Amino acid sequence: MNIIREIRPEVYSVGAIDWNRRLFDELIPLPDGTSYNSYLIKGSEKTALIDTVDPPMKNVLLNHLEQLGIEHIDYVIANHAEQDHSGSIPYILEKYPHASLVTTPKCKGILMDLLSIPEGKFITVSDGEILSLGDKTLEFIHAPWVHWPETMLTYLKEERILFPCDLFGSHIATTDSYVTDEGQVYEAAKRYYAEIMMPFRSNIQKHLEKLKNYQIDIIAPSHGPIYDKPEFILNAYREWVSGMPTNTVVLPYISMHGSTGKMVEHFVEALAARGVTVKQFNLSVTDIGKLAMALVDAATIVIGAPTVHIGPHPNVAYAALLANALRPKARFVSIIGSYGWGGKAVEQLQAMIPNLKVEVLGTVIIKGYPQETDFAALDNLAGTIAEKHKEHGFV
Ligand code: FEO
């Protein structure tokens, strides 16, 4: 699909819309497809291309450049080395052999490793360095760990446009240039943040502080629609990276024969009766993107785990490993579940979440189907969680 948009005079969006992609990194569900945004900036003296597209869609980008009559590119700016943005750089350099590849020193090394680009093609830039295109000026802002170590943002001074690559992005395929449905974009951007940015939220906090020094009229990320009201996504990110969780329990669980399921049902009612919001996920059918999004704000994670052989159900182990990798801001954790004759589900699950800086609020692990004393134990745990949330001021 060929859609070229002039987002400001001589500033074009020339990337590709991927309507059909449903999985990213062979892990992350993409319910709404995605886009690989690439931006062409024509200055009075020099022309720059910011980021490219995923290699299977390289012809879309090359066609766009041809349609615009671009015969010469001086600079290809690589904000990020991951292949969905960098993978078509070799094709661009082949078509525009005089172009230099502009990036951070760290990104240079990664691009040489990933794409076998010769060292002589690179110009490395330091944090705050300026590149003049004549009547347009680019400033490079080093912003490591969003979400790789080499990442930078590019700022077009005259038009006050920030090109942050993955940061602030969303996986949405749309023909709209700008955000038109804030609800849809909020959900998609939060899913995206949860899946790849959340582990680096302390780095992102620092980058958000740094961005306060820039006047930004437009944020043009490399996935999803462009923000012409930047405060919308900046405010959302400020909330997501803040250390303060909400009065919410996330409860991923699975039940094989109904015992853990009955415990979860009772426990969710007990928490709700105490004013705690609960987000319950049956892991046999859960979209892990939804689970990741719920982890962005939750104060407490309670894992519901039946025992398979002597360990936790493998789907529950997967959710625990995912939570450990995403490093959410949760402060408390607990495990509930049942076993048939014995096992080490609790010990094994606890060993899977070393990255979570949490207080363990006890466990309710029972033999067989829950009885009155087990429901009472769940009520006690619900009371403890509600009290802890209140003490900490989580609302
Ligand atoms: Fe969209 Fe980290 O690549």
Supply the key terms:
24% strand; 7-stranded mixed sheet; 12 helices; 5-stranded mixed sheet; 2 domains; Metallo-beta-lactamase, Chain A; alpha/beta; 395 residues; binds MU-OXO-diiron; Rossmann fold
- CATH architecture assignment of the largest domain: 4-Layer Sandwich
Structure classification: alpha/beta
CATH superfamily name of the largest domain?
Answer: Ribonuclease Z/Hydroxyacylglutathione hydrolase-like
Distance between the ends: 46 Å
Radius of gyration: 24 Å
Q: What's the story with the biggest beta sheet?
A: 7 strands, mixed
Count of separate structural domains: 2
Helix content: 25-40%
Shape: elongated
Strand content: 15-25%
Molecules bound to protein: MU-OXO-diiron
Q: What is the CATH C-level name of the largest domain?
A: Alpha Beta
| Extended strand count | 23
Number of helices: 12
Q: Name the average pLDDT.
A: 96
Looking at the structure, the CATH topology of the largest domain is: Metallo-beta-lactamase, Chain A
Low-confidence segments, given as residue ranges, are none
What do you see in this structure?
It is built from twelve helices and 23 strands. It is of the alpha/beta class and 395 residues long. The protein has two domains: 5-241, Metallo-beta-lactamase, Chain A; 250-389, Flavodoxin domain (Rossmann fold), CATH 3.40.50. The strands form six sheets. A seven-stranded mixed beta sheet has the order 1-2-7-8-9-10-11. Strands 12-13-14-15-16 form a five-stranded mixed beta sheet, with no helix packed on it. Helix 5 (182-197) packs across helix 9 and helix 8 packs across helix 12 (372-391). The two termini are 46 Å apart. The mean pLDDT is 96. The structure holds MU-OXO-diiron (FEO).
